[in-house]
Every structure is written in structure tokens, then in C-alpha cells.
Task: structure prediction
Amino acid sequence: MHSTGAKREPPTPRPPLSRERIAHAALRIIDEEGPDSLSMRRIAALLDVQAMSLYNHVRGKADVLALVTDAVAADMALPERLEGDWADGVREIARAFRKAALAHPRACELVLTRQLGSPAALRAVDMVLGLLLEAGFDEDVAVHALRLFTAYATGALLGEARAAGEYHGASGDGDVRQLAGCGLPAVSRVAPRLADVDHEAEYAFGLERLIDSLRAYAPPAPA
Result:
């Protein structure tokens, strides 16, 4: 007696293991469970492969973390061409950097505290330096400015990623009362403002102050 059931479709072939698949699996684990949950065994389980097979593509966990960092940097949406003056360009790159870093809050600290050497990250570096050099800034000033902006953005975004508890987001009445009643006159005076944090506005404020300070080193405008 012959079966009249429908023919079974052959199983969909699994995509081959690659550094890119490993990086995205690792980033997914970090996004969902935090960086402490990341391990080679955990990545292998998510990809449904043997842990040892990962070592045909990566050297170990440190290599995976570098791939994760590069993957996040590659998500930075940089324009092909920047419009406006050097200050407008710095603003646009700084906003793109913030958006890419905070797209993966649990990976943010990992990304911001590692050396970025991927082509995607170096493209942002090249764009900032190119803006300043084309505007006529001295080479030493351009490099100092790049490092200054990088240090500011890293610190600000680490603080934003770690923000939690009483100073995170819109404040409640209890937060304001606690600050107002702390017995410290300056803190009490600005308690409502101190308890309420708009991270995007704070980031923009600091960025503008850096831009303002850099104008002192800009070449004089042509007469």
C-alpha cells in the first residue's frame, strides 16, 4: 500500500558558518542577555554548531568581541558627502556615532572602550580629520580636536548607557524631594533640573561647547 501523503520538502540548507554570522550571534546574545552571558559555547548553541567549529573562523572570545565592535561601528550611517561647514560636519558625525553606539545599549560599553580599527570606524576618523584639514586647521590641531571629540563622545555615551535609577529619564516627585532636602544649597536650588536628564540635549550642549572652543583655532575667514 502506497502512501498518498504530500512529499516532504527537503530541509533548508543551513548557511555556512562565517565570521559575520558569529559576530551577529554574539551581538544578539549581548543585546538580549548582556556581555557577561557571552561565551563560545553560548554562541555555538545559538548557531546550532559545535563549539570547536567556531575556532575555524575566530581565534577565541577576544576575536569575537573585536568583531562585535566592528559590526556596531559598521552600522554608523555616515553620509557619502557632508554639507555645510566643518562644524556642521562634526555635528552630523557625532550624531551618527551616538545613534550607532546606543542602538545596542548592552554592547555600548564594550564598543566604546575598545580600540576601533575597522574600515568603518576609520572612515569616521578620516571624515573628521578631512573636515578640519580642508577648513584650514593646522594638522596638530586637527589631531588634538579629533581626540578631544572622541573622548567627549565616549564619556557622554558611556554615562548615557549606564544611566539608571533616580537620574535616568524623567524624574518623579520623590527624586526632586530627595535632592531638594539633601541640605546642600546648590543641589537643592536646582533639584528639579538635576533630577531630570535629557541625554540627547546634554550631548548636544557639550558638543556645541567643544565646537565653540575649537573656533579659536580656526583660520581667519578670507576678507
Summary: The chain is about 60% helix and 0% strand. The radius of gyration is 24 Å. Residues 164-170 have pLDDT under 50 and may be disordered.
